[in-house]
Structure formats: C-alpha cells, structure tokens
Amino acid sequence: MSRFKRIAVYCASSDQIDPQYRRAATALGHLLAASNIGLVFGGGSVGLMGAVADAVIEGGGEVIGVIPEKLQALELGHPGCTEMHVVDTMHTRKLMMMEKADAFIAMPGGFGTLEELFEVVTWAQLNYHRKPISLFNVCGFYDALIQFIGQAVDQGFIREELRDLITVGNDAEAVLKALDGGSVPDLESWLRMP
User: Fold this and answer.
1) Separation in Å, CA 121 to CA 78, 116, 126, 143, 178
2) Mind listing the pLDDT tens digit for each residue in 56-92?
C-alpha cells in the first residue's frame, strides 16, 4: 500500500503527440486507481491530462481538477472529476495542486509542465513542502533534462545535496516506486548559511 493519498500529475495538454505518451498516461492513471491513490491534476479534458484522468475515473479512483477560470470558460474542463476547483489564476492553481497532493509526477509536456515542475522543485528546495517529486521519463523524454541538471550540479549552480531532489522512473510502476522511496532532503542547515 502506498504512503500517498493523492499525487499531482503535471503533463501535456496537447493532443498532437505520439500515441506512446497517451498510453503511458493511461497506464499511470490505471495504476493510481488500482493503488487507491487519488489524482490531482490541471483539470483539463485534453491531451495527457485527459488521458490520465479518464484512466483514474475508469478505475473508480478520485480525481481532483484545478483549472483557471480562463481555461474553464473555453470548455476545456474535464466533466468527470470527483471535485473540480475553478480558480482565478495559474498561480492559485499551482498552489492548490501543491497543497492537495502528497507527491508530484511530471509526465512529458511543454512549457507549462516544465514551469510547474520547477516551481514545485524550488518550493521543496526552500522547504515550503517536504513532498517527493519524480519525472515519468517516458521513452527517454527527459534524458536531456536529467543530463542538464547533472551538469548544473557539477558546475555549482545547483547544490550537490539537491541532486536527488527529483527521482526518475521510466514506466508507471517505476515512477511510483521512485516516489515511495524518495524523500526531500533536510535543507534547513544550508538555508541558514550566510
């Protein structure tokens, strides 16, 4: 049994992507539902967001959507959510998703997914939360990003103790296992450094 009640999943809203990514999102959604882990997501009915939510719903799981008014007005909200929170801004959306989740998974996505990922990582770095974060590295999508983070650590732009702030899994089972084994390092000491 997982230690997580709910996991936030950040992922693409685009439908113009290879079907392998949709299959991975569906597999993750089915695994969440089978593991009795609720989904917190951006509330959309399109792209990988829609696929992961559909799979959790199909499995009888809890689905909590958080969508800005602007996107809800475009009728992009998923109609099958257990709870749908319509919020005023993207900032409010990200904060609510962070508060409602016990852990975070970033699936393949574009600028929005990357922005959500790095904001939640930065919040962990600064001890605003102590929740694990993982990349779902479908078909090596995040290989270059993983290499870049390693380079930033090696060159002193990211502290060595933060190297493992983001875990990685290459399939749905591996990403959940990485989260279950992952923890946020105790960073209080370096936050107090002059």
Assistant:
1) 26, 9, 9, 18, 16
2) 999 999 999 999 988 887 767 899 999 999 999 999 9
